[in-house]
Hints:
Elements: H1 2-6, H2 24-35, H3 39-56, H4 69-77, H5 93-108
Helix pairs in contact: 2-3
InterPro entries: 5-3_exonuclease_C_sf
Region (Disordered): 74-113
GO molecular function: DNA endonuclease activity; single-stranded DNA binding
Amino acid sequence: xxxxxxxxxxxxxxxxxxxxxxxxxxxxxxxxxxxxxxxxxxxxxxxxxxxxxxxxxxxxxxxxxxxxxxxxxxxxxxxxxxxxxxxxxxxxxxxxxxxxxxxxxxxxxxxxx
Length: 113
C-alpha cells in the first residue's frame, strides 16, 4: 500500500484539466443501478450539491484548482498523530502508515547542500 501511495499509476495525458458540471442524468442512473436509489432520493443528495457548484462557478467566483497529493501529505504529516492511523486525523491507517514510511525515508537521507 505504501508503494501505491508514492508511486501511483497515473494517466500520462498532458491535456489541461477542465472542470465540468456533473451529468445528473448519468449520476441518477448510476445510483439507481448500483445502490437501488429512486431518482427522488438521488435528487435529494445531488441537487443541493449541483446548486453549490453552480454558485461556486459564477462570474464572481475564483477559478477552481485541483490540489496535489504533495499538498495533502504535507497537511497530514503536520498532524501530531500522523502515522498513528485515523485517530483524530480523519485519515485511514494506510495513509498514516504511508506518510510515516515517507517521513522515515526522508529523515534517513543525507542532507545535500
